[in-house]
Design goal:
This protein has helices spanning about 10-20, 25-35, 35-45, 50-60, 65-70, 75-90, 90-95, 110-130, 135-150, 155-170, 180-185, 225-240, 245-265, 270-280, 285-295, 295-310, 355-360, 435-440, 450-455, 465-475; strands spanning about 190-195, 205, 210-215, 315-320, 325-330, 370-375, 380-390, 395-400, 415-420. With about 475 residues, the protein is of the alpha+beta class.
Length: about 475
């Protein structure tokens, strides 16, 4: 292919621009390059891809260089409007309306095109606003988790890109330095800038026009905060992301940038070597993996799920759970029955009180991992859990495997063992009958309502980010050195 499918409209506009600039009709140019004018019209309308040899002939016939035809930029402001209108009418949002496509004619004024494009922009904005709801977010998260399960949570193409970029800055082993991250950014044409006034709804901001990535002024406790943020910001450019058209796109992009950052901070080759040796020693421990690469426990645990099945032949599960027992992140491909609602979503659901993700909160010494076996209706699982604290409260990070795989892990000799029959209500949710009789109808409690339940995501170009605050920030910094 000469150009990607999304570029055929631009290519067609450039062919038309240079044809009309030289005063040639479709038939006249077609005769010069040996094709029918009707075929050339299809190419100009972005419906047929020309061969490279034909493009060379068109360039010669119109007195320009081939590179002029292949340029990605629209040839004029009007062409840019026509291209945007064409792409908008090809979108699923417009297609769902069942309305015919409008083809701009010579007599269509620029003001008319501006109005049509403006209407499509507003239609797309309202569609994004409509889907940025808790229900859509939960549905999107569920579909993405199920999709990643089919891939064993492994994205080798992104690992390949990460390894190439690490090679370009000469990183070989050990924890990645801030200097190496800055060099990666420089190779992509960006400067890392630390500021105190980031928009409240944004973790970082990338100024594509001026080549700057704005980050917070201080690192997040845990060792990899600013490095991870910078790498996630770079990932959008590295992975070729465009403005998300749906909430599912937004979630997929977020997963991919997190994966990329982890793949750079914990490179595949070094990570697999480290973990393979730990498996050979029957001493796999997330805390060792974490310390070897200078990242957070959660980052190391998630990265372990990327590599465990594809490279270590281990099925695994991962949980991040709040001190109230609610799930905020989860993954499994080992058969553990995650708590889900009627939509299949696990976020916000309560895990069994007998799982290590919750029993770990009860111990006094929390400096090391907590180990436990749990008998469930789906089988026995071995878990390693570490707890931590944020401003929002305590949380636990759990990596677990089926009993058969526990022989490879540190802590397998633990005597901690529990039985869980969840989702059977009698397991840990139904009060004892004596307590029910004692207190039923004699007490009243005011529930703690999580703020995110009632707070919709700010509607904007990127779900969750306030456009006004973002653009005011960019404007304020556009002239800074």
């Amino acid at each position: 292919m000469v150009k990607g499918v999304n570029d055929l409209v631009t290519l067609g506009q450039r062919i038309r621009h240079f044809r009309t600039s030289t005063g040639l009709t479709l038939d006249q140019l077609g005769e010069k390059v040996g094709i029918a004018g009707s075929q050339l019209s299809l190419m100009e309308n972005g419906k047929r891809e020309p061969r490279l040899s034909l493009l060379s002939s068109i360039a010669a016939a119109t007195g320009i260089q081939l590179s002029d035809l292949l340029d990605d930029a629209p040839p004029s402001k009007r062409a840019a409007l026509e291209i945007e209108l064409e792409r908008a009418q090809r979108s699923s949002v417009y297609g769902s309306l069942g309305l015919p496509a409008i083809r701009p004619a010579k007599g269509t004024s620029d003001d008319t095109l501006v109005a049509l494009v403006g209407l499509h922009r507003e239609l797309a904005r309202r569609a994004r606003e409509a889907i940025a709801t808790p229900e859509e977010a939960r549905r999107g998260n569920t579909e993405l988790r199920q999709h990643m399960r089919t891939l064993d949570n492994y994205l080798p193409d992104i690992d390949d890109i990460a390894e190439r970029m690490l090679g370009e800055v000469g990183h070989i082993s050990g924890a990645l330095t801030h200097r190496s991250v800055s060099r990666m950014a420089k190779n992509l044409g960006f400067e890392l800038v630390h500021v105190n006034d980031l928009p409240h709804s944004a973790r970082s901001v990338t100024d594509l026009e001026n080549g700057r990535i704005y980050l917070p002024p201080a690192s997040i406790p845990g060792g990899h905060g600013l490095r991870g943020m910078a790498l996630q910001a770079m990932a959008h450019r590295v992975l070729g992301h465009t403005t998300p058209a749906t909430y599912a796109d937004f979630l997929r992009q977020r997963l991919e940038i997190n994966y990329f950052a982890a793949a750079v901070l914990m490179p595949r080759r070094q990570s697999v070597e480290f973990l393979s040796q730990a498996k050979a020693d029957r001493n796999i421990a997330v805390e060792d993996f974490r310390d070897a690469f200078g990242v957070t426990h959660e980052a190391a645990a998630l990265r372990f799920t990327n590599l465990a099945t594809a490279h270590l032949d281990l099925e695994v599960h991962f949980l991040r759970v709040g001190d109230d027992g609610a799930v905020s992140k989860a993954y499994e491909n080992d058969g553990l029955r995650l708590p889900v609602d009627v939509t299949g979503s696990t976020e916000g659901q309560l895990v069994c009180r007998h799982w290590s993700a919750r029993t770990a909160f009860t111990r006094n010494n929390r400096t090391t991992e907590f180990y436990q076996y749990t008998d469930t209706p789906e089988g026995t699982f071995f878990d390693s859990t570490q707890t931590g604290t944020t401003q929002a409260g305590e949380f636990s990070i759990t990596i677990g495997v089926p009993f058969a795989h526990s022989k490879w892990f540190r802590g397998r000799e633990t005597g901690n063992r529990t039985v869980s029959t969840c989702p059977d209500e009698s397991c840990c949710r139904t009060p004892e009958s004596e307590l029910t009789q004692r207190w039923s109808g004699k007490a009243w409690s005011s529930a703690k309502l999580h703020a995110h339940i009632l707070s919709p995501l700010p509607s904007g170009t990127f779900p969750g980010v306030d456009d006004r605050e973002l653009y005011e920030f960019l404007e304020a910094h556009s002239g800074s050195d």
